[in-house]
Amino acid sequence: MKKESSAQSGEIVKKRFIAGAVCPRCSEMDRIINYHKDGKNYRECVACGFKDEIRLQSAPTELSTRVNKDTEDEVHEEPVKFIQPTSSRKK
Fold first, then answer.
1. How far apart are CA 39 and CA 50, in angstroms?
2. Domain limits of the chain?
3. Rounded to two decimals, what is the model's pTM?
4. Per-residue pLDDT tens for 30-83?
5. For residue 32, what are the contacts with CB-CB under 8 A and spacing of at least 6?
6. More exposed terminus of the chain, fewer Cβ within 10 Å: N or C?
7. If DSSP codes are grouped into helix, strand and coil, which group holds residue 3?
8. Nearest 10 degrees: Cα torsion 24, 26, 29, 32
């Protein structure tokens, strides 16, 4: 983890490596650092110098699957009546 002081505000910026992250420009793995500065999140590649602001999105909606469906959509059990076939053999 790197620490860098901002000349303008005097606050210390903690830069952290993101494990497994791949740079969108140079495709190098494990070269991306993440830091928070002036109320915004940034990512930066230490290999090629790529810099980008991370815009956090709201939580994605969960996909509808058979596991998380509402119970209203379930098929309710109904009793089944078995009927014995009549023997209609001709002799």
1. 20
2. 2-55
3. 0.51
4. 999 999 998 889 999 999 999 999 887 777 777 878 777 766 666 778 899 999
5. 17, 18, 21, 22, 23, 43, 44, 45, 46
6. C
7. strand
8. -60
